[in-house]
Amino acid sequence: MSESAATGILYLIPATIAQEPVQWSLPENVLSVIRSLDVFIVENEKTARQFLKSCNITIPQQQLTIFELNKHQGNIFEPSFFQPLLEGRNTGLLSEAGCPAVADPGSHIVAEAHRQNIQVVPLTGPSSLLLALMASGLNGQQFAFGGYLPKERTDRIAMLKKAEKDSAARNQTQIFIETPYRNNALFDDILTALSPQTKLCIAADLNAPEQYLKTMRISEWKKHKPALNKRPAVWLFLAGK
Amino acid sequence: MSESAATGILYLIPATIAQEPVQWSLPENVLSVIRSLDVFIVENEKTARQFLKSCNITIPQQQLTIFELNKHQGNIFEPSFFQPLLEGRNTGLLSEAGCPAVADPGSHIVAEAHRQNIQVVPLTGPSSLLLALMASGLNGQQFAFGGYLPKERTDRIAMLKKAEKDSAARNQTQIFIETPYRNNALFDDILTALSPQTKLCIAADLNAPEQYLKTMRISEWKKHKPALNKRPAVWLFLAGK
């Protein structure tokens, strides 16, 4: 099971989540690793190059090898992505925002690395899910992340009710995300779907100066509609007693 | 809902997870916040002081106000913890390792801050759960953290089988932790409880030089027993197709 000495390391690189300065959310040694790399697998080349610039990389951008995931529909793995790794060049898998492969593409790349016995090293950085969970005051001993809620209102309300039932049965914090322009509609659906005693945390614009973070029971939220339009947010709830 | 200008901020401070250098897993601005504080709520005073020393704080240790959670059984909140906050002094809630309130004590402190309208600011740092999930190659779009597994073998096997059923029904990565000296027993129970097709990731000693990270199907793990005794580990699995 030992990795061949000749193959490179696949570093999993988190990116900033609110255009905050990199010193706010990326450790100095992680920035050093980023600056040492000249091969990246990214979601979008243009924004990846902007992020790398903000990390003050010293290797000229035109010397970087950048593979883009977005060009390939679904979770297709292109063998060319790993050619540099197999030649011994370390490669960075870079998220668009937050941590790669968590609520974001990239897990099929990591899975392929395991299959090919390539060493995987995850690096520390910001995750809106984790920051929101820490700051929610809800249960951090049992929790579930469900991804995006369904778009259709009836399905969404059914999903919320099912998640609340799970939450009550397992004392499990339920975590969801939503496309920012649907925040107001989701807020209304949550007030409709969940019980007055359930505790809801809304965590918006995490790591930004305008961060909004509040946990209250649904009965209290009914009196306080937050201004959430188009603000990236994480939604967490725990069935109340 | 606006916070009073007179109250301080409750910062949620992650700590290193493998005695790695702080530059490896804590951003420079997070270290600056830590160095600016003179009030902390901690799990254990002695190890908290060691961690603060490793952050090169400049305020003399004897001038720090440190409240200890461990002295108080259960999730009891002592009003004295928030006295400095109410007087306008920023306070740090510090985990023993990793992120406060996630697989660790502290969520009742955060909940109380929300109740008292005290501003909560979560800071970025290492989380063994998140690093393991990123690096597992398993599903990061749906996952559940179940905390510690039951100690008793029959209960533990039943819990593993239930989690595998959930995993199959929801395409949900299941994440657990275990006391390190029980790793070998847990490994044996996992091989007994789970289906050959299920993918298991073991992530041990994350952020340490001796990091161990491997994802394979149960059928493959049956041929490769890892040396895990007393190594802190995260266990993740996803029912296979």
Strand count of chain A? 10
Which geometry of chain A do the CA atoms define? elongated
Number of alpha- plus pi-helical segments of chain A: 9
Main-sheet strand order of chain A equals: 3-2-4-1-5
Strand content of chain A: 15-25%
Instruction: Briefly note the structural class of the backbone of chain A.
Output: alpha/beta
CATH class of the largest domain in chain A: Alpha Beta
Q: Biggest sheet of chain A, open or closed, and with what strands and sense?
A: 5 strands, parallel
**What CATH architecture of the largest domain in chain A do you see?**
3-Layer(aba) Sandwich
Instruction: Give the termini distance of chain A in whole angstroms.
Output: 49 Å
- H and E order of chain A: EHHEHEHEHEHEHEHEEHE
